[in-house]
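Justification of computing resources. Each target in the renewal requires a structure prediction run like the one illustrated here; the chain below, 409 residues long, is used simply to show the kind of job we budget for.
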Amino acid sequence: MADIRPFQAILAAPERIADIATPPYDVMSRAEAAAMAAGRPLSFLRVTRAEITLPDAVDEHDDRVYDRARENYLALKRAAPLRPDTRPAYYVYALKVGDHVQTGVAAAVAVSDYDSGVVRRHENTRRDKEDDRTRHILTVGAQTGPVFLAYRDSPAIARLVADTQCAPALYDFTADDGIRHTLWRVPAPLTAPLQQAFAALPRLYIADGHHRAASASRVCARRRAENPDAAGTEPYASFLAVSFPASHLRILPYNRLVRGLNGQTPDVLLTRLREAADVLPDAPARPSQPGDVSMYLDGRWWGVRFRGGRESLPPLERLDVSLLQARVLGPLLGIADPRTDGRIEFVGGIRGTDELERRVRDGRADVAFSMVPTSLGQLMDIADANQIMPPKSTWFEPKLRDAIVIHEI
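Resulting structure tokens:
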């Protein structure tokens, strides 16, 4: 059963939230974050990416960055202002882009659910990235960005969410990227029923935010070690999350760029690839069905279809990202571990295939691979089997904004 808890969120003044809330800290480079925050003194990137308020020579993991994040957070609390809500509550958070709407429940999820596997993960984490967010949470004293969770659809939760949306919204704004963000506080009489409805869910699934969840677990373990008599209900014993029904979610492909061809010419790579797959020239940039990959090499798109009874493979090995790794990236391009090999770069599908072509043409990469999105059903099945997907297998869009709600610990 899922243990979600109401919490006393730190909220912005409604008229300021559009100036404060920002995309997640980890979907942009330092330069992109600096450009996004330029001329915006209330931008929350000054907290989540505090290195942009220090000289470029300061490493992003320098102690001064975390101290500055704390300073900037306290300054923003005064200037925005950011204030505690009137009571602990759940919140309903809706995102709308074009005709797509997804509506989730913001809550504090028990760290024990993450540790025990009620909250299922599908990716490994990197220690350096965990270290970064762990230090950030401890120094700032807050979880500033939510973990993005999914659950199998629940009519009971859907009814309670719909009832909440009948009330006036706390926030309702459209960001610069055209995504509309709306937040409601769940009425007090619906708090217990919503908690019970989530308790009926056997599992929650991390869609995005594995490092945030892992870091929250590490913070909790550290605080518990310092407070052995703690009850387990302290704010640090839960992590900020927004949980969405599976039917609401949209997954885009997570494409790949590779620098260098492992000492081969394009012609040699194509010859070797044809031993494992059917390869056709002048293919569309976006593959049309699972099992197909489009490859941009030597100025043109190639269609790649792997041979060999894909349907008979176990679910994890059947993923297009797994097939690409097992049959191309590893044996042909020499990328044994895509988590640590600096030659591979992952590009979210929101950037489109034009971005892949551009980076190959300007020499930042030598070959690009355009993928079919992994489905949420595949993700859940693999997580239920306690298996780990290859890194960067999914790109969920739209992204949740930081600072919509903040969870202080």
